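User: Reviewer 2 asked us to show a designed sequence for the structure in our supplementary figure. I'm pasting the structure tokens here. Could you produce the per-position amino acids so we can include them in the response letter?
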């Protein structure tokens, strides 16, 4: 398990768009050497729905996340199948139309999470930048 926090200069009602709309999702969900084109992102934001997208770099890497419980705009659960990972996003409204984003990942081994955690931290910085 690992947790990360990110402050975002936007209210939860805006920040949640990063998980429910293709353009803001594509702006933050990137990996080193890859981008995620918004026109290659499909989102069905409902419990049991999914996010399907493609990392594009020297190669194309399709990926899918599944939605678990949703309490928009404050709570989003996502699951990856391979490797098996459950992600909980909590968005807490702060004074001044700001949001504290709490990211919690469960299910990865220590070896799996070692390279993933820094990448997620970078992604969350991209998310904050998108809304600034």
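Assistant: Here is a per-position design you can include in the supplement:
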């Amino acid at each position: 398990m690992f947790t990360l926090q990110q402050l975002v200069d936007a209210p939860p009602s805006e920040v949640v768009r990063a998980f429910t709309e293709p353009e803001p999702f594509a702006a933050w969900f990137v990996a080193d050497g890859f981008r995620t084109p918004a026109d290659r992102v499909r989102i069905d934001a409902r419990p049991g729905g999914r996010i399907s997208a493609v990392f594009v770099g020297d190669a194309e890497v399709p990926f899918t996340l599944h939605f678990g419980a949703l309490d928009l705009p404050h709570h989003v659960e996502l699951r990856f199948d391979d490797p098996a990972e459950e992600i909980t996003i909590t968005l807490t409204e702060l004074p001044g139309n700001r949001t504290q984003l709490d990211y919690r990942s469960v299910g990865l081994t220590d070896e799996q999470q070692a390279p993933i955690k820094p990448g997620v931290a970078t992604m969350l910085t991209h998310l904050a930048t998108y809304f600034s």
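For the response letter, you might also mention the following. The CA atoms of residues 83 and 112 lie 8 Å apart. The beta strands are 2-8, 42-43, 50-56, 60-71, 75-80, 85-94, 98-106.
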